[in-house]
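Before relying on records like the one below, remember that each one covers exactly one chain. Contacts with other chains, cofactors or solvent are not represented anywhere in the record.
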Amino acid sequence: MKRFLTIVLVVSLVFAVNAAAAAASQAEPIKIGLSICSLISQFFEGVRQSAIDTAEELGVELVIANADGDAARQKEQILNLISAGAQVVLAIAQDSDAIVSSAADSAAAGIPFVALSRQPTDMQNVALFIGFSNEQSAGVDAEAMKQAAEDLGYGAVKVIQMVGDLNDTNAVERKSGFEAKAQELGFEIVAEVATEWNVETAFNRLRDTVQNVDDFNAIFAPSDILIPAIMSVLSARGEWVKYGEDGYKIITAIDGDPTAVAAVKEGYVYATANNDALELGREGVLRALDILRDGPPAQNIQKIDAIAVTKEIADSVGDSIWGNSFAN
């Protein structure tokens, strides 16, 4: 009798283990939705590719939607991600105000909403925001600009400040961060150029500005995507020259993308703040999984500091900065 019971128990245990294994093998992977405002920059490409790589590494299904710069389309796409069964929504907002309604849509569906890079103006329904310390990034750019001016023997820093789309919290914070540090360091901001994060607009307005501003020796770009506009304008004036050459303008930018890092290595751009897109994409997926397991964190704003990547740093640190390691 005991032997019979033992056999029954063993058979039952084996059946239970096999059934559990079969169920596990048939279980669908965790599904994360990623809504990207656009893919106009290497930065957004980097976030996207890093999120894909991390999801594949962890066996997570990642569904990606690209809004192509349209806030209304982004809202619709996020609703589609929710309907498709996304268990967490990650989003880089096209518009920091408009994305608030998508966070509310996610909350209404019981799905955590994680904002990346651009902080929504209302955080009520946002489980987590992961981004960069924009004021700090602009500040390290200004400090690098000051160092370059001292090394070059420029008596004063007279800077043209370019400004992004002020519907984007990143643009607002980078503007205020640069202005605060510029005032502290004694810079003269001789002109402001509104770009709306559009390269053609940036080119036209910067071209018009430099025709009316004779005395400037520096340009601050709040994103690397504006560097081609600066290059075109200065090239037409014979002023797109390397560090130390006559007429050199001290250019600093933000993001640390591969194009900017290459221009830093060549000597045309003095520094770019390293906002690591690959770290952001990976962190987004990892923190989404943490939220599914443990719930939203008590502190729902996570910001990452940047360093100013100069030629010396770009040449020495190798793949530890994403501008050296990423190829889209």
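Residues 1-26 have pLDDT under 50 and may be disordered.
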